[in-house]
Amino acid sequence: MPTNPTPLDGLxxxxxxxxxxxxxxxxxxxxxxxxxxxxxxxxxxxTRVSRNITLRAPIVSSPMDTVTESTMAIRLALLGGIGxxxxxxxxxxxxxxxxxVKRFENGFITDPVCLAPENTIADVDRxxxxxxxxxxxxxxxxxxxxxxxxxxxxxxxDLEPDRSRPLREVMTRDLLWARxxxxxxxxxxxxxxxxxxxxxxxxxxxxxxxxxxxxDLLKNREFPDATKEKHTKRLKVGAAVSTREHDRERIDALxxxxxxxxxxxxxxxxxxxxxETIRYIKERHPEVDxxxxxxxxxxxxxxxxxxxxxxxxxxxGPGSICITQETMAVGRAQATAVYHTATYxxxxxxxxxxxxxxxxxxxxxxxxxxxxxxxxxxxxxxxxEEAPGEYFYENGVxxxxxxxxxxxxxxxxxxxxxxxxxxxxxxxxxxxxxxxxDKGSVLDYVPYVLQGLRHALQDLGCRDLATLHARLHDGELxxxxxxxxxxxxxxxxxxxxxxxxxxxxxxxxxx
Length: 511
Description:
Number of strands: 21
Structural class: alpha/beta
Low-confidence stretches: none
Mean pLDDT: 87
Strand order of the largest sheet: 4-5-12-13-14-15-16-17
Number of helices: 17
Number of domains: 2
CATH class of the largest domain: Alpha Beta
Strand content: 15-25%
CATH architecture of the largest domain: Alpha-Beta Barrel
Shape: globular
């Protein structure tokens, strides 16, 4: 007796994205559910960011100067993603950021914030406001590599009314410390026996070289998915470069410092300048993976793949601080761009990174569902503790600066290299500057995002991203358009007021 064929609602991706001249973004589509026969904990998020670099979390941080420096790259790599350090700086400064990532040993803080005995309690207060901690090693001149003379903790200053008192009057001088070369296990045992929270590491002359904290030792056990090199166990990290010929020196310096992924950063990636840069890297440094972009069409993707890229960065104008589409009238709706480029790139075994337009967990799900191997996040990571910049209050809300690399503010510091505008007398902004709300630490925020992604994959009936992409291409994954009314219906509506769901680490507005 013949079995009834499985009824299929919606459209497969090929038909859904085939309408001539129609560009779709993430809000324009909805994914239809699949069949669940596994628990959410069974969902795996393994993926590739390039031909040769695998991740356990499909998240890449954007190479923006308000998003990614060494702290972001370290924390994101610990969580299974990868950070791309921006190049709105000198070669020496970018290399220094990269080396901090490479020197990082899980549990050891190799660049702790230090103060001098002449600093005041108010300086500690400012550090606590910016970084969230107030246990500070005190060295002779307030710098790492100087002789350790004391330690200031909360118990030394909490009840002190005069915040102008110098630290030499309140710091603890009788210190527990360990000699350089101590293993993480030995440091852990010293802290366990002493019941102390901090352990300075000094060299033979008493100069501070690192710091171990009980908190970081506990966190050390929580990162089984860290993105590490197989043999050296160092964290993997990416770095951005421009297509300018003078950046060849930057490329060579980054490779010497141990970069794993070079991201060629250009708003419109289909250029002879980028192709020449790709060929230079592949000829001089074949061991390093190269991500090319940005592209939004199959023809653009073809040119860069033929030049030798190991990954493609897709997106032209969808970012929250980007106005390229409005200003230049050039670009493409992001869901359509990712689908078509990813479908073409998959034929050549080149992963695609969806860059821009991801403002929520739902957008991240859609970026992956239309073919992205990873998503590159800017605004979602801006505002975290690990993002560069200081917090301040705007209308009672704790925020950080966030700016597009094509904003006039960023181009003044060199961001125009991405847009072939760094040497132009008249500059046309393709981005803006703004603020984003404090999101707390990525150590809390990113696991929250990843857990949401696992729940979404479970709803789709996919145990992993490989299954998701297989169903995308064989037509089993189904899509429908969302009308403007459907988009309203799918969000909060019809309430006089409501309390948004809490997100880990996000602080409430100050009253």
